[in-house]
Amino acid sequence: MECEYTYKYKDYLEEGMKFTAYRESSLGESLVHKHDFLELCYIISGNATHYVDGTPYQLTKGDLLVIDTDQTHYYRSEGGVLYANMILLPDFISENLHSSHTALDVFAYFLYNSEFRSGDGSVRPPLVSFRGNDLISADGIVNSMCDEILSKGSNYVEVVSSYLNILFYLIIRNIEKTNRDNVMHDIRDMIPGIIDYIEGNCGNQITLNDVAAKYFYSPSYFSRAFKKYFGTPFSSYVQNVRIQKIIRLLEDPSLSIEEISERIGYNDKRELYRAFKNVTGTTPGNYRKAKKPASDK
């Protein structure tokens, strides 16, 4: 798919503006093009097939497609389609949106697959499908944004920013609803391997990033899913595994606490003492004494 034209943000945005939205109807096939801005394409009515970097997406009323800068794309509609295009520059998000973190999460999820990544590493489609009450809400928000920009009433930039804030929250809610069941299913299949890996490597410096990468998860997704499944953060779980191993090793009187510390990956004995007391409420030495048989005391 060879690009026929590159659109520049200056073609659409008035001087000093970093966001716009407009409605447009289309029939037939558009130019193959790309652009230097972020684009949200929302279908108000009708149907279309949108090709992004060669991948076709079947779009109908209530669908919103996220298109990154420099992605080659075009659309085709045989029966006609009415859509709203929302065009924004990346720095508009951090400068104008109260939900800037939420908005950045949306783009990270769709464009870089850094959120809710599937266990096999596959790419999620950059598509949200609003249905039911969410469709009614999204329709109202998108059309109101377009109307505000057309009329340019007083404080319209602030009004449009508020609408966009709400839209991003709706997108996040849609993502969470779609992926709620997948979160537990995704990680449940990997649990035996994850547990074995932590048990077998707790003497090394295990990091969340390393384990997430091993099982093809993003760190943020893996952290949330792990805590949801085990009821405790990853770091606390690893610490508890280490402490349980220390407890077993303390039963061997031939091992000094320094040797145990080295085996379990604590480079500093004081670090081991702090971690052990945090979990058990006592020191390794006192624990060993308390567990000695009465005849040895």
How would you sum up this structure, described in words?
With 297 residues, the chain is α+β, with helices and mostly antiparallel strands. The protein has 2 domains: 1-181, Regulatory protein AraC (Jelly Rolls); 190-297, Arc Repressor Mutant, subunit A (Orthogonal Bundle), CATH 1.10.10.60. Helices cover 49% and strands 20% of the residues. Strands 2, 4, 5, 6, 7, 8 and 9 form a 7-stranded antiparallel beta sheet that branches. The protein has a two-stranded parallel ribbon with strand order 1-3. β5 and β6 (55-59) form a beta hairpin. α1 runs antiparallel to α2 (100-112), α2 (100-112) crosses α4 and α4 (156-188) crosses α7. The chain is elongated. The model is unreliable at 112-123 (pLDDT under 50).
What secondary-structure arrangement, pairings included, does this model have?
Layout: E1 5-7, E2 19-29, E3 33-35, E4 38-46, E5 48-52, E6 55-59, E7 63-67, E8 73-88, H1 90-96, H2 100-112, E9 127-129, H3 132-151, H4 156-188, H5 191-201, H6 208-214, H7 219-230, H8 234-250, H9 257-263, H10 269-280, H11 284-291
Parallel strand pairs: 1-3
Antiparallel strand pairs: 2-8, 4-7, 4-8, 5-6, 5-8, 7-9
Compose a concise summary of this entry:
Helices cover 49% and strands 20% of the residues. It is built from eleven helices and nine strands. The longest helix is centred in the middle third of the chain and has 33 residues, at 156-188.
Helix content: 40-55%
Number of strands: 9
Q: What is the name of the CATH architecture of the largest domain?
A: Sandwich
Alpha-carbon Rg, integer:
27 Å
In total, how many domains does the architecture comprise? 2
Q: Low-confidence runs (pLDDT<50, min 5 residues)?
A: 112-123
- Broad shape: elongated
What is the count of DSSP helices, taking H or I runs of 4+ residues?
A: 11
Largest sheet: 7 strands, antiparallel
In CATH terms, what is the fold-level topology of the largest domain? Jelly Rolls
Please, what is the average pLDDT? 82
Q: Which structural class should the secondary elements be placed in?
A: alpha+beta
Strand content: 15-25%
Look at the structure and give the CATH class of the largest domain. Mainly Beta
Q: Would you list the SSEs in sequence order as H and E?
A: EEEEEEEEHHEHHHHHHHHH
Distance between the termini: 81 Å
* CATH superfamily placement of the largest domain: Regulatory protein AraC
GO molecular function: DNA-binding transcription factor activity; sequence-specific DNA binding
Keywords: DNA-binding, Transcription, Transcription regulation
Pfam families: AraC_binding, HTH_18
Protein name: AraC-type DNA-binding domain-containing proteins
